[in-house]
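@here heads up, posting the sequence + SMILES for the coenzyme A run so it's all in one place. Ping me if the SMILES looks off, I pulled it from an old spreadsheet.
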Amino acid sequence: MDPSYILRRFELRDLPRVISINRRCLPENYSESFFIGHYENFPEIFLVAEKDGEVVGYIMCRIESDFSGISFIPFSSPKKGHIISIAVLPEHQRKGIGRALIEKALENMAKIYNAKKCYLEVRVSNYPAINLYKKVGFEVQRIVKGYYADGENAYIMSKDIQ
Ligand SMILES: CC(C)(COP(=O)(O)OP(=O)(O)OC[C@H]1O[C@@H](n2cnc3c(N)ncnc32)[C@H](O)[C@@H]1OP(=O)(O)O)[C@@H](O)C(=O)NCCC(=O)NCCS
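bot reply: prediction finished. Complex structure tokens:
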């Protein structure tokens, strides 16, 4: 990543800026409480990239447990990280920020939350994002037809992280 950028944890004061980056860069937009809920529950995997004191990108993730249905072994299924949203402002793209955000989030998922895998959904037409995910080691697992509100299909991509 260009050394003039730093990565740090999201803080509540970043919320308006993160919401504005989300609205500018992605059709999938969320309420304030959705962002705050992720910050409160998974603060180490909600990260921002900052340049000259201004937030220019973010990644927001969560940790999920797939319970196996065997109720007497509640922790039998490994935890998975889930990348919910990532965006970098267009004028700051192609400087390694997206990659740095994902790599730090993956590191924290494994080290802090003990997740063994990470997965995400991506529009099948979103070549920049698909390329980025492949570059950091994600592979396409399957397609979900009509996953997005406008009917576009999604790839589910995943990566082992421990
Ligand atoms: C996807 C996104 C986060 C990438 O952020 P970024 O900071 O530009 O990514 P990086 O600079 O770290 O790129 C890393 C690699 O990803 C791939 N990549 C990134 N942007 C690309 C593009 N426009 N076209 C093709 N490949 C691209 C390249 O392999 C790149 O490596 P390289 O620059 O050495 O060739 C950014 O394009 C974005 O915010 N897009 C809009 C929001 C979005 O689609 N989010 C994902 C939703 S699933």
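MO: The pocket of coenzyme A is lined by residues 25-26, 86-88, 93-99, 122, 126-129, 131-132, 135 (CB under 6 Å).
MO: One more: The chain has a mean pLDDT of 94.
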